Amino acid sequence: MDSLHIGVSSWINQDANYPDFRIGDALNITLQFHPYRICESKNSLASIHGIPELRYAFRVRGIELETTPWLTTIDSQKRTMKTRDNSQISFLPVAETDAWSDDNGNAHYVLELERIGNGAEQSGARK
Fold first, then answer.
1. Which DSSP state fits 46?
2. pLDDT at 122
3. How far is 97 from 113, CA to CA, in rounded Å?
4. Rounded distance, CA 8 to CA 50, Å?
5. Is 122:26 a contact under the CB 8 Å cutoff?
6. Taking the alpha carbons of 36, 116, 120, 29 in that order, is the dihedral positive or negative?
7. Could you tell me if 20 and 97 are in contact, meaning their C-beta atoms sit under 8 angstroms apart?
8. How many Å apart are CA 83 and CA 95, to the nearest integer?
9. E-assigned strand segments in 10-122
10. How many Cβ atoms are within 10 Å of 4's Cβ, its own excluded?
11. Could you state, in order of their start, the residue ranges of all structural domains in the chain?
12. Has residue 25 got a pLDDT over 70?
């Protein structure tokens, strides 16, 4: 795996998990596989023979902001629901994320990442 595309919702930045991303940033990404959360513990998966490294250093090579229009509907309990119009999927290349302003704070991004080195222990990569 030398490159990776990951989806990032604006709440990831808003919850202070990460600052906004910029093209050229070096960062450490811990891969999380659903439906199970993989994290460090005393029974670390890293100690099991054959389990690949779960944390990698990457450089942000590109960022796309989802610009797919929103659809507003009312559900059976009279709540307003917003979903994307999957018939008009679109993305716009941007130089950096702005989680608080893009799409009124509801942005979704796709980060194009390029792996740096062989693992996460790279100088200059932020966590």
1. G
2. 45
3. 14
4. 28
5. yes
6. negative
7. yes
8. 25
9. 26-30, 55-66, 70-74, 80-84, 91-94, 108-115
10. 15
11. 3-115
12. yes
Q: Is the dihedral of CA 82, 88, 89, 92 positive or negative?
A: negative
User: 88, 67 in Cβ contact below 8 A?
Assistant: no
CA–CA gap between residue 30 and residue 76 (Å, rounded)? 39
Give me the amino acid identity at 26: A
Q: What are phi and psi of 11, to 5 degrees?
A: -65, -25
Judged on CB neighbours under 10 Å (0-12, 13-18, 19+), 114 is middle
The first and second tokens of residue 21, run together, are 């991303």
pLDDT digits (tens, 9 = 90+) for 41-53: 445 666 677 766 6
